[in-house]
Specification:
Helices cover 16% and strands 27% of the residues. It is α+β, with helices and mostly antiparallel strands and 277 residues long. It has one domain: Trefoil (Acidic Fibroblast Growth Factor, subunit A). The strands form 2 sheets. A 6-stranded antiparallel beta barrel has the order 1-4-5-8-9-12. The longest helix has 21 residues. One of its GO terms (biological process) is cilium assembly.
């Protein structure tokens, strides 16, 4: 038997006391202690994912309403006429606007914070990630006042009111490479780019100007308009991505009109709150 054949049967590992066996044994012990410490502190990736899922999908109760919306109400924004599947199907429609945490952000935080993007969610159950509060944009206390068409407001994440409020924001000229596919994000600063207003949809029997100042009704078609840029919030049904809890759809900041000047279905929203019975 040749020397090369004899060497093939020799296998070295950290149990063989040759070379740097002591260093290898200490390294294995250090890895075990580090793993146990991370598991105890909830720093493992699986523990972070479970914490994030618990925080984002915690059920919430939306404001009960008989028809009109008021400042301080807890609502969700639903795009009822867009497909909720990819490829689209006729029997399943409707996406909720809500926050997301990417795989890169999961390592640093497990709850929605400043800078988290907003997407269209397939899950339509009210949760912390998709529940917002209508807040006054003129620094006055308007709690309980009826919200009217073309009246400016701030869309605040409901779960952030107990800490530092987070507002839905859109920057028309973002820094290249930072926003990517998602133009909407949460911001701690209530600036002009965080101001929104609801507009009635175009109808043949009444103009939008005639409806200005009327109370905004729940669960009816409306248009979400960005005050600083005068563009409408929509859903880009052609761009889907994978998230931690299924597929997500990309928002779209663009006024989409048909040949008659009416908003297309991806630009139409509803203030989704349960109506009291």
């Amino acid at each position: 038997m040749s020397k090369s054949d004899i060497d093939k049967g020799i296998v070295y590992c950290n149990r063989v006391l040759v070379g740097n066996w002591y260093e290898a044994a200490q390294l294995e012990e250090h890895k075990i202690h580090k793993f146990l410490e991370q598991m105890k502190n909830g720093e493992l990736l699986l523990a972070r994912y479970r914490t994030m899922t618990k925080n984002l999908n915690e059920p919430t109760i939306l404001t009960q309403s008989t028809g009109r919306i008021c400042f301080g109400d807890r609502i969700s924004l639903l795009a009822p006429h867009v497909p909720a599947t990819d490829p689209p199907t006729e029997n399943k429609k409707g996406l909720l606007l809500g926050g997301r945490i990417s795989a890169n952000e999961l390592e640093y935080f497990q709850d929605l914070v400043d800078g988290c993007s907003l997407v269209g969610l397939v899950q339509t159950e009210p949760a912390k990630r998709n529940t917002f509060v209508i807040t006054s944009a003129d620094y006055c206390n308007r709690e309980g006042e009826t919200l009217k068409y073309n009246q400016e407001f701030l869309l605040t994440l409901a779960s952030s009111l107990d800490k530092k409020p987070l507002y839905v924001r859109y920057d028309p000229n973002p820094i290249p490479g930072l926003c990517g596919l998602y133009p909407l994000y949460l911001s701690e600063n209530p600036v002009s780019n965080t101001r929104w207003r609801f507009l009635p949809v175009q109808r043949p029997n009444i103009t939008r100007f005639e409806q200005e100042g009327l109370p905004v009704q729940v669960n009816v078609d409306i248009v979400v308009n960005h005050c600083a840029t005068n563009v409408n919030l929509g859903i880009n049904v052609g761009k889907w991505a994978f998230g931690f809890h299924g597929k997500i759809c990309t928002p779209l900041m663009k006024t989409c009109l048909d040949i008659y000047g009416r908003e297309l279905p991806n630009n139409i929203w509803q203030i989704y709150i349960p109506i009291a019975t």
